[in-house]
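Continuing from yesterday's entry. The apo prediction looked reasonable, so today I'm repeating it with zinc ion included to see how the binding region is handled. Same sequence as before; SMILES copied from the compound registry.
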Amino acid sequence: MEKLVQGIHAFQAHIFRARHELFERLTTGQNPQALFITCSDSRVMPDLITQAEPGDLFVLRNAGNLIPSHGAAPDSGEAATIEYAVKSLQIRDVIVCGHTRCGAMQALLQPDALADMPRMRDWLGHAEATREIIAGSYRVADAESRWKATVEENVLVQLENLRTHPAVAAALSRGEVKLHGWVYKLETGEVFAYDPVRGQFVPMGEAANRAPDPAGKATARASA
Ligand SMILES: [Zn+2]
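Holo prediction written out below.
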């Protein structure tokens, strides 16, 4: 904890004062470039990996970067945050970013490990489609490959869930919002983006510049 308190002092002394114009401008409002939906994992740092500035990213985080489908969790913070981002802030790009070595995705593959965590077990129900896809398509893969595939397939499943939210569906129908599926690779710092043309995750910059196919059924073949 002491490290965090020292960090606050250092921020005020060296960062906030030096960039006071930026922080003063931000007191009048925000106009973020993207809604960034990712895992709570401490090793995933949205601002750092994208080199974003204060005010650039509107961030939604939870265990496993899950997005309950519309109606599946009516009072959820996820539904409210997505609605606010798209309707009020009029954000045009929504990113769902999973990450390698995700503990939530590992738990999805090993539900017995959740015997004493009933809330987590229930929460991972929003990734049941991911579990089914992996159970059906990756039976012969080794444990590490299955884990990585689970991370990738889950990004695609959650993008599908995202489309069920009325604000997102309406914005998509008007061509006002783009959805992006990313995976951050902890081991190398690389970010892979889902390429709907090739049906796989490819290094950032190589992905086709268009939203994932609405069907979203292409298998997330491994490259991350
Ligand atoms: Zn995670």
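Comparison notes:
- Strands lie at 34-39, 57-62, 93-99, 178-184, 191-195, 200-203.
- The longest helix spans residues 143-163.
Will overlay with the apo model tomorrow.
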